[in-house]
């Protein structure tokens, strides 16, 4: 009996470590699970972090279920580039996928671009979908957004559009609103908008503009609907995941989208005459659909974006930035971005600052706004300092870009609360809508600028030429004349109105280099006056002058190819020859179509890679700006210049020592336009005596 017990003990001692090692090995394998896309099995597959994670420091985003989001960039095979045709193609593609019996949970489509999104119940379903459609010639690229770990937060509700905005019961806290108005009035004075604001209060029949805000995650608080113009505020909540009803005691309330909207286009905000639009997103498809809802459905041309990436990593220029540049170049959409609040580069175990102006904010045709610090005052504009949190780094490849373009007050009283948690907040998120409101108001006051051809370049040049330059001893200037942290300086609305009267528009299609393409009329300048001038032009975003249609299959082989005329005796031989000939032509069409698809988004637009290849690796042509003075010998002499290479904005800030006649001219050093490229569009604006 004792011997049997001894044997059992020996067996346990021998086998227990083995059992432990097997179990431990299982745990290791489980915890270091490799996902199917880690093998890089196809160059058509691009793996990215969840779209929401790029925009938030919150650990809760790791638990958010994006429903295994899959974005497909498609290759359409048709001639038209109309949005209706593209939308129909996207819908037909989804129908074909349904017929192929590939399993998916839900699908979304773009109205402007050949892009669709699919969502799945499991990662296995997404893997099966990708691997079994990888040979589909209509799919150019798969973008897989990670959805790793245990998901605890329920999937978002996809669509809620509120059009009828009357009849809400709301409680309007008085004292917090008064504090908000006081703090905004101070900011209004800093950007010299007080006179225009007072004018708008007593003008009841002024033409209205449209202005939009795209926000991430934060639900709008409908208690504040009464502060917006009746029937002139439209909300498109595609997927807010931070809900007011879910806020627990002591937790931060989701005030962001409401506060940005109040600053931008409410009765208390900057542009009080606007029809305002707000769209809220979390996923990439919702981001795209939010913009399309603004631009395509509602014809909004000025949009505020107070959001950005998080974490220490730099996000390069990709298809989202390319899409924004396309909208600016084709439709004249002005996208205004907050610079971001990570310049201090603070980090701990739960939080990490994002110090970059990157990702969508790198779009060359967009405006980026930094923030002034909390001690800024209306009586010391040039002496106001940049906030230490305001981002200004762009990465070495983009360090010549005018980002930020301007800086504005970022401190505001936050009245948006359900539990009386109102207090001051700060950030570039609240500086950007001030500038966006100035832009939409200027377009209302100067309707000659409000057209798709000139809107973007005009406002970038006018903002730059009219801004109050900072006056500090430790400033760093870029080669294009903009300050590294301040851009051109602090916006001044009265100066914007003046500069708009000194604005020229230039078109340049010539591919020649080293030539002067424009010279302004002479203008008189007194001694000690300041001359500030800005030149801005567009990244053409692959737009073509003449459409290049995709190869049409009917031009290669007739649908009735098998009805070839031949004798009955020669039927077998002739039939075989016809089959071989048709197959050869079909293969030729496929090869030609694939080659076309590698370079074209559609018949009027190239892909980003093809665009840069046609433009010799550059985004934009190289134009420089010069200021001349007429000397005593009646000769024009260069006295100041801005000569960057990779920027699409140039700035001159010059204090005249002597009175006299001055003029500006533009010299082109290198053109990137190619045979079928659209022309370069430029705007030049200047202002004399720009001091405060």
Automatic annotation (TrEMBL):
Pfam families: Peptidase_S8 (PF00082). The active site is at 237 (charge relay system), 256 (charge relay system), 429 (charge relay system). The chain crosses the membrane at residues 9-30. Belongs to the peptidase S8 family. This is Subtilase family. Keywords: Hydrolase, Membrane, Protease, Serine protease, Transmembrane, Transmembrane helix. InterPro entries: All0781-like_dom, Peptidase_S8/S53_dom, Peptidase_S8/S53_dom_sf, Peptidase_S8_Ser-AS, Peptidase_S8_subtilisin-like. PROSITE patterns: SUBTILASE (PS51892), SUBTILASE_SER (PS00138). It comes from the Bacteria. Residues 283-489 form the Peptidase S8/S53 domain. One of its GO terms (biological process) is proteolysis. The lineage of its organism: Bacteria, Bacillati, Mycoplasmatota, Mycoplasmoidales, Metamycoplasmataceae. The keyword Transmembrane applies. The keyword rRNA-binding does not apply. One of its GO terms (molecular function) is serine-type endopeptidase activity. Gene3D superfamilies: 2.60.120.380, Peptidase S8/S53 domain (3.40.50.200).
